[in-house]
Amino acid sequence: MTYQAFYRVYRPQSFREMSGQAHVKRTLQNALLANKTTHAYLFSGPRGTGKTSTAKIFAKALNCEKAPSSEPCNECPTCLSITEGSHPDVIEFDAASNSRVEEMRDIIEKVRFAPANARFKVYIIDEVHMLSTSAFNALLKTLEEPPAHAVFILATTEPHKLPATIISRCQRFDFKRLSSNDILERMKVVLEDIHLPFDEQALKVIAQAAAGGMRDALSLLDQVVSFSGESLTLEDALLVTGSVSQDIFYDIAQSLKEKDVAQVLSLMEGLIADGKEPVRLAEDLITFFRDLLLLQTSRELDELLELVTPEEKFMQLAHDYSADNLYGFIDILSKTQQEMRFSHHTKIYLETALLKMAQYSGRGGAVHSTESNVLDPQLLDKITMLEKMVQSLTQQIQNGVPQVQVPQTKETPRPRVKSQNYNAPVGRIKEVLKGATKKDIQTIKNAWAQVLSQLQKSHAALFAEAEPVAASSSAFVVKFKYDIHCKMVADNHELTGSFTQFLLQLTGNMYDFLCIPDDDWYTLRESFIKENHLADKNESSIEEDSVNVHSDQPFLADVQEMTSDDPLITEAEKLFGKDFVEVIDD
Questions:
Q1: Helix ranges, 112-163 (H)
Q2: DSSP 501
Q3: Which residues form the AAA+ ATPase domain (predicted)?
Q4: Handedness of CA 281, 282, 284, 289 (dihedral sign)
């Protein structure tokens, strides 16, 4: 007989053998005993959490010859044939490969026929979210009022893709990720069954890598067993899963405590050289410091540990750190992990995070810096002035003076333009204006419509009241009529990344995407003109060769148009847009 993977051999055949999902098991078993089963169920949850296995166990319990019972007997011909997948009245349908409406109509036509030799016809539709809209519509009426002998069980990993009309006609059960202890216990049963000695820490590594999925855990276990020799060791598990030993993390944490940055970066470089992914390392470091927090909190939480074993050296390390430090480390790594998702230079992000952690003080999230104690001279002046005011007020109150005149200070101008909802990157936009050319902005405008057509409709709608207003060889500026749209686009790194990628395909040039609200753009443009004396240059050079001016002073061309126009025309263009304003000379 051909070899079968662990997740197939050790698939649960009764509710008793299922790991976790107690809320699902209890509800279904009570319904079976009370004969109150309904016609449609929806099983949703992450992969490898037992949705399809539960559906088959439920189908066996419904049709078992010893029913009503809370468990299938797994001995009668009906139970055995369902286990083998050969029973004619239990139909398993894969919606991922049969998503068309024709396949669904074929099922619906056969639903009305009575079962051949069972009490119920059970239809298990796996990955139901893959069905087409037409197939859902065809299924809808049958799902609402099926024959008394038919039971539908829909399984999906993405319930949000199902129409609300389908969900409302089903009893929904949400399957949760399995705990590490549940996975650990199941793997022990498998290894004891095949008589293979094992290191429990190795099983913890596999359970942590499986991320709550039993099927993933058993597949990894199968792989580690094949790699191992006479026993399953921690080294084998670390090598196969790509995980890192807790001793390496101990060395990193010890070096961070001693502020030995060179050692920290050297250890991290060695892990990356061995093929470890920086994103995975960041996740494992978060788990490691979380385990240290648990050790620091209570010895009764040992069962919740995922990477660390409750040994004396880890207990000592946990108490060497303050809780503020550990919370700060987790916060730094979490933020870094989010930033790494949108970058190809993940190693640099991780190294930067480790440097921040080495300099972390643990007091309100501060990072040590040689400049942190140096105060701004303007701030010192204000402090001195306030001290004098306090002294003066105190003296006048003591002398019984009823009124006090407070000297007014002149506010310093803010360094960047600020709108109500979004702060535009003024410095970067000014750099773009310094190097902007008509050729570059024309390139962006020519590709604008084609790029928008390739975006999702919800994303393209954000650009309905936006237009490119300036561009250099490396970046371009987009003006938005509404601040909220500007903020939504600027904060959506995936959208701006897709936009620049489409531009790269069309223009052959990689641009940075900069956003600015409408009002801020006019304020910034006017400020830029004054700072660079472009209006003066315009008066002296506009009468000369305007073509040369346009090529030498790219942004000056737009300034000339703006300053040479009538104020009424300029105001009309601001209100309605240049595309809708036509000037007719009498």
A1: 133-144
A2: H
A3: 37-179
A4: positive
Q: Residue 129 pLDDT > 80, yes or no?
A: yes
Task: Give the Cα separation of 22 and 174 in Å (integer).
Answer: 11
Using CA atoms, how far apart are residues 306 and 296, in angstroms rounded to an integer? 15
Q: What are the DSSP calls for 65-115, one per residue? A: TT-S-SS--S-SHHHHHHHHT--TTEEEEETTT--SHHHHHHHHHHHTSPP
d(CA 131, CA 151) in angstroms, rounded, equals 18
pLDDT value at position 1?
A: 53
Q: Are 279 and 298 in contact (CB under 8 A)?
A: no
Q: Which amino acid is at 211?
A: A
Rounded distance between C-alpha atoms, residue 462 and residue 119, angstroms: 55
Q: Is the pLDDT of residue 540 over 50?
A: no
pTM over 0.85: no
The tokens for 113 are 């026929």
Burial 305-338 (b: 16+ CB within 10 A, else e): bebbeeeeebeebbeebeeebbbbbbebbeebbe
Domains and CATH numbers, the chain: 6-174 (3.40.50.300), 180-241 (1.10.8.60), 246-358 (1.20.272.10), 426-580 (3.30.300.180)
CB of 127 within 8 A of CB of 156?
A: yes
Judged by DSSP in three states, 122 sits in: strand
Nearest to 484 by CA among 460, 456, 465: 465
Contact 209, 201 (CB under 8 A): no
- In sequence order, the 6+-apart residues with CB closer than 8 A to the CB of 54 are 18, 21, 24, 25, 28, 43, 175
In angstroms, rounded to a whole number, what is the distance separating the alpha carbons of residues 413 and 238?
57
Q: Measured between alpha carbons, how far is 437 from 476 in angstroms, rounded to an integer?
A: 10
> Does residue 286 contact residue 330 with C-beta atoms inside 8 Å?
yes
Spatial separation of the C-alpha atoms in residues 224 and 203, rounded to whole Å = 10
Is pLDDT of 394 > 80? Answer: no
